[in-house]
Amino acid sequence: MVERMTAAQDEIAYDGRCVRLRQLASGVAELCFDRQGEAVNKFDAQALDELRAATGKAASLAPRGLVVSSAKTAFIVGADITEFHRLFLESEAGIAAWLADVNEIFSAIEDLPFPTVAAINGFALGGGFEMALATDYRVMSTAAKVGFPEVKLGIIPGFGGIVRFPRLVGADNAVEWIAAGMHNGADAALKVGAVDAIVDPDKLRAAALRMLELANAGSFDWKARRAQKKARLMLDPIEAAMTFQTALGFVGAKAGEHYPAPLRAVTCIQQGAGKDRDGALALACRDFAALARTPVADALVGVFLNDQVIKRKAKAYGQAGRHVARAAVVGAGIMGGGISYQNARKGTPVVMKDIADEALELGMSEANKLLSKEVERGRLTPDQAGHILGTIRPTLNYGDFKTVDLVVEAVVESAKVKKAVLAEVEAEVGPETILATNTSSISIDELASVLKRPENFLGMHFFNPVHRMPLVEVVYGEKSSKQAIATVAAHAAALGKSPIVVRNCPGFLVNRVLFPYFAGWAMLLRDGADFVAVDKVMHDFGWPMGPAYLQDVIGVDTSHHVEDVLAKGYPDRMNKTFKDAIDVMYEAKRLGQKSGAGFYRYEPDDHGKPKKIFDSATYELLAPVQPDGRHDFGSEEVIDRLMLPMIIETARCLDEKVVETAAEADVGLVCGIGFPPFRGGALRYADAIGMRVILDKCARYAGLGPLYEPTDSMKAMAASGSLYFPK
Ligand code: NAD
To answer: How confident is the model at residue 4 (pLDDT cuts 50, 70, 90)?
Structure first.
């Protein structure tokens, strides 16, 4: 009642599409972000224009204070990346000038002649958190999260955060938050002083208004707080030298040479430390603009936008598919155990079936181990972990299968065994139940041939380890129904994974484009390259590991098998015409990490993880398949001979509609095999090099065979100058 009366007396002073300003009956004004027709608030050009106008209006109202709030579940999720990505095409000076203009808005809020407070009710990220930093005080809901994700896009906080935050929480805390790019909960935010109070969600508004009252009553010195944010950073010279020296070493080592933004954030804070707000903001605009123009920012923003494509599609699948309320997994091995855990962890009860008691015990103990780790990290309480474990039901029979919506088959990789198991499962489940196989190499259509309801069947290809790897390939066969595809894609998203929908073909998408890279590598070794030197070049290129090391991690036997499947699937370009390094390792039973030796030897390190050790015996083993001995290849040749086949095969997948979009193909590579994110994916990498240059490079290696033969679509793109990701 009181609430309604108050509302009736409030007066709307500014009413935009994104921002509303009300003069409250109490004499305080409220600037509320409430973007019409959308679920979240974000900063695009219109929201910024409205914020500028509403701030001017607030100044003219001369209220007793201003509370900045949100009418959505999130406070403000950040800047509209789609819009700002286009802006990054401008000159450095143009970007810096635009940013300086935007910063005038936030400085105008900071300079309002009355106390101000932000009521952070939900996600306040990037520009959203920077909005909150422009006010004098911040009250945060215990359910909210704040942080600066900008470095993950290759840039630094541009709306004043890099200036205000260190002045508020100290340079050391600011460096830690900004360079890590993480989200932070309310307790962490209060601890460093990023916010002034945390309260239960339903008390937020009252607490923010109370803060203004106290500021007006003189209990809080809002002018001193404001002066602190506008002044130089208070650090004595020795403290400053220590803080920045340590930060540069630590941040540089963590980010690595390919990711310049975190280091630039540190130097920006350092160089701005001796300046007042406006001086430091000018430096921030300069540094932001320099980073925004780098190919790294272009690629990282591209990765982000690709991910948005996947999320939008997953949402649409969610509407078209059926909800999976209960799942079952057949085979409790490495993959089946992981898939069961992931279902339970994300709230889907799961029946886990195997034929061996020991396998079930192993599956349950693995799940228990993962849950215990989450308890250790404070992400779950022991009770929650116990409850989750209780939703995995290990069994040796099909008792509960009648009531499940989805069964994921993860038994051994044998077409014969899988066909028998799938037919058996189909007889046990209801007519609507979807059946998915986690096969990594067997044709979905071949497996579907033994089923009575092939429309309910498809592939759901998880990667190892399931709880960590973000990708799932949803592989549809000739007969898979649209509803089955939608159900499985939506369920993969519900499991926290990025689903990409792929048409059935040998290798699906990820292995199909990875193995031509290995084939290029095998030829390079045959021609005399040193596998250790090649690993170094490709690691320096940005891969998490070079190809020989990757073979050891995948398992040489698995790789040998998939190589064979692809050779049969694409004989024109992947047929093997010589004995290669993988054959040698396979025959020598050096299967990689799992057998203690492959291309390298492995010994447990202090944490029990396998440590890679150079092994000269590998040179001796490889000598017979390196008939001309070993010699040096320049890094450009190494990179080209490995990367070109991968680019070409990805282009083929797009031509053949194995994946629908370039965005999905690149997500598959980044999330499935660790393609360097700062290069965006094989197709964005091709865009960056330029298709004409790629064709020249292909011509240079034409003598190596059809693996280096560009597609017609690539030739057409070179002729027309078109891109996979048009600017
Ligand atoms: P695994 O050998 O660890 O586990 C297979 C499990 O299936 C064993 O526990 C076995 O007892 C069980 N099993 C065998 N026959 C069964 C039956 N008739 N009914 C029920 N259970 C039965 O194998 P994995 O590595 O977990 O691989 C499983 C599947 O996942 C394979 O198709 C594999 O190609 C695929 N895959 C594996 C990886 C990987 O890196 N391991 C990655 C992606 C996909």
So the answer is: very low
Q: Which residues, at least 6 apart from 389, have a Cβ–Cβ distance to it below 8 Å?
A: 344, 364, 367, 368, 371
Q: How far is the CA of 358 from the centre of ligand 1 (A)?
A: 14
State the pLDDT at residue 1: 35
- 277-323 pLDDT, tens per residue? 999 999 999 999 999 999 999 999 999 999 999 999 999 998 999 99
- Residue 378's pLDDT is 87
Q: Is the dihedral of CA 659, 660, 661, 667 positive or negative?
A: negative
Cβ atoms of 694 and 647 closer than 8 Å: yes
Give the pTM: 0.91
What pLDDT, on the 0 to 100 scale, is given for residue 113?
Answer: 97
Dist. CA 660–CA 503, nearest whole Å: 9
At residue 86, the 3 state secondary structure works out as helix
509 and 473 Cβ atoms separated by less than 8 Å: yes
Cα separations in angstroms, 609 against 463, 469, 603, 605 = 19, 18, 8, 5
Cα(558)–Cα(695) distance, integer angstroms: 33
- From CA 665, how far away is CA 667, in angstroms rounded? 6
> Pocket residues for ligand 1 (CB within 6 Å)?
330-336, 353-356, 359, 410-413, 417, 421, 438-440, 462-464
Gap between the Cα atoms of 236 and 244, Å rounded: 12
Residue 102 clears pLDDT 90, i.e. is over it: yes
The tens digit of pLDDT for each residue in 401-427 reads 999 999 999 999 999 999 999 999 999
- Which pLDDT tens digit goes with each residue over 225-278? 999 999 999 888 888 888 999 999 999 999 999 999 999 999 999 999 999 999
What are the Cα distances from residue 231, in Å, to 277, 283, 285, 445? 6, 15, 18, 68
Which token pair is 83?
């819009």
DSSP per-residue codes, 689-709: H-HHHHHHHHHHTGGG-GGGP
Rounded CA-CA distance 700/645 in Å is: 13
Question: Any idea which residue has 């889907």 for tokens?
Answer: 348
Residue nearest atom 20 of ligand 1, based on CA coordinates:
354
Q: Strands, DSSP E only, in 438-572? A: 457-462, 471-476, 498-503
Backbone angles phi, psi at 635, to 5 degrees: -65, -30
Q: Which helix (H) or strand (E) holds 197?
A: strand 197-199
- Token digits of residue 182: 């993480």
Which pLDDT score is estimated for 162? 98
Rounded to the nearest whole angstrom, what is the distance from the C-alpha of residue 264 to the centroid of ligand 1? 46
Burial class (CB in 10 A: 0-12, 13-18, 19+), 577: exposed
Cis bond leading into 627, ω under 30°?
A: no
Protein residue closest via CA to atom 44 of ligand 1: 440
Dihedral pair phi/psi, residue 366, rounded to 5°: -65, -45
The verdict on whether 607 is a catalytic residue reads no
Q: What are phi and psi of 116, to 5 degrees?
A: -135, 150
- Taking residues 418-442, what's their average pLDDT? 97
pLDDT digits (tens, 9 = 90+) for 483-517: 999 999 999 999 999 999 999 999 999 999 999 99
Backbone angles phi, psi at 606, to 5 degrees: -60, -25
Residue 230 is predicted with a pLDDT of 97
- Residue 664 vs residues 227, 278, 721: alpha-carbon distances, Å: 48, 42, 22
Sign of CA dihedral 483, 485, 491, 493: negative
**Distance between CA 517 and CA 644 in Å, rounded?**
8
Residue 572's identity, in one-letter code, is D
> Strand pairing partners for 688?
none
Query: How far is the centre of ligand 1, averaged over its atoms, from the C-alpha of 333 (Å)?
Result: 5
Active-site entry in 85, 461, 467, 560: 461
CA distance 268 to 257: 18
